[in-house]
Amino acid sequence: MWTYLARLILRRRYWNLAIITLLSLFMGYHAVRVSMSYEMVQMLPPSDSTSVAYREFKQMFGEDGSVLFIGIQDTNVYKLDEFNAWYGLTEKIGTINGVEGVVSFSKLYYLSKNDSTKKFDFLPVFQGRPDTQEELDSLIEKVYSLPLLAMILQ
Q1: What is the Cα–Cα distance from 117 to 99, expressed in whole angstroms?
Q2: Contact of 104 with 86, CB cutoff 8 Å
Q3: Burial 10-39 (b: 16+ CB within 10 A, else e)
Q4: Where do runs of H (alpha helix) occur along the chain?
Q5: In the chain, where are the structural domains located?
Q6: pTM surpassing 0.85?
Q7: How far is Cα 112 from Cα 122, in angstroms, rounded to an integer?
Q8: Measured between alpha carbons, how far is 74 from 90 in angstroms, rounded to an integer?
Q9: How many CA atoms lie within 13 A of 51 on its CB side?
Q10: Which tens digit of pLDDT belongs to each residue from 53-91?
Q11: Is 88 in contact with 77 (CB distance < 8 Å)?
């Protein structure tokens, strides 16, 4: 059996090489068209509430695999202790290896016109942790008085 197979391969070596070459060319031609898909498999039906919410989220914020969004809905964040805890969490997340930047309510920036350099300065609203509730309230009023930030936070 093995002797017969060896003779067949050796006698028809040119045909075998031609077939292997043609198959390699065919596979190489189709390998050029191979592409990776980074889309998640849809495990939930399109009518599911979670799937609908995810599509709305993607439509609103776009899609980027290297961005993480954490959202909260809490009016207590305007209280001094809660705000300082949120500020601390933002600082901790910013120190994690691989994190390039953190944007949160406690790390908001605004544009300020600088007449001397004739440019805009990108300044933080909160220079540090506020010490009193009155200081926090005045900074929050400042946030809502800035047109762009007020529009986003509404």
Answers
A1: 32
A2: yes
A3: eeeeeeeeeeeeeeeeeeeeeeeeeeeeee
A4: 2-11, 13-31, 49-61, 80-94, 133-145, 147-153
A5: 2-31, 74-153
A6: no
A7: 7
A8: 16
A9: 9
A10: 888 888 887 776 677 777 778 888 889 999 999 899 989
A11: no
